[in-house]
Amino acid sequence: IMRSHLYKILFCLFIFISVYAQPFTQKISHNEIESQLNSYLKNIYSGTSVIRFEIINLKAPVNVFVKSNNYKLEISTNHTNLPRGNSIFTLQIIENNKIQKTMTVSCKVKVWENVLRANRQISNGEIISGRELSPVLMETTTINPGYVTALKNIKGYVVRKMIRTNDVVYKRHLKQKPVVNKGELISLVYQK
Question: Which end of the chain is more exposed for a tag (fewer CB within 10 A), N or C?
Fold first, then answer.
């Protein structure tokens, strides 16, 4: 009696699987998802001050299957700011020009940039010439935004707040040099 029940259960299970289960043929690998994220980040970081980046702690669905080998992964997330730190991405699995599945993945994106640091203490009121600063490659994922990455953006600016030796230079430390200094004589030409 037990054997006949076991056969019936196995037969019903076989029928259920064959009728309701979709024929999946390939599993999308974790490496494939990471590779897609790498290409996406490389593309959006090109032309920026980002020198290198690294994806760590990637969390993606474990068992994602596709029906055929003819599929592609696309990232559909539009980031208004460049991804850094803990980030979430939406990936679409496209087969035969149709979106078959959408999945969400999360990871931490570490970013390195050349950031300007002070070679010496720079006092309030000094004008930035460039000799007092040097670029240093550093991870910028966790430092406050507003750091300066290019000397050309601040050359000739006046230091608003003292910058200590080896400190990162922030835009808030600086102000544009005034066109006319206090007490300076100027000539005005009036034309009619």
Answer: C
CA distance 14 to 22: 13
Q: Where does the pLDDT of residue 78 fall: very low under 50, low under 70, confident under 90, or very high at 90 and above?
A: confident
Cα–chain center distance at 95: 27
What is the pTM (predicted TM-score) of this model?
Answer: 0.69
Closest to 162 (Cα-Cα) out of 130, 129, 118: 118
Asked whether the beta carbons of 158 and 140 are under 8 A apart, the reply is no
Rounded to whole angstroms, the Cα distance separating 112 from 142 reads 10
Contact 117, 132 (CB under 8 A): no
Residues 6, 158: Cα–Cα separation, whole Å: 85
Per-residue tokens: 98: 């149709």
Q: How far, in Å, are 84, 113, 145, 165 from residue 142 at the CA level?
A: 9, 12, 9, 20
pLDDT at position 121 is 95
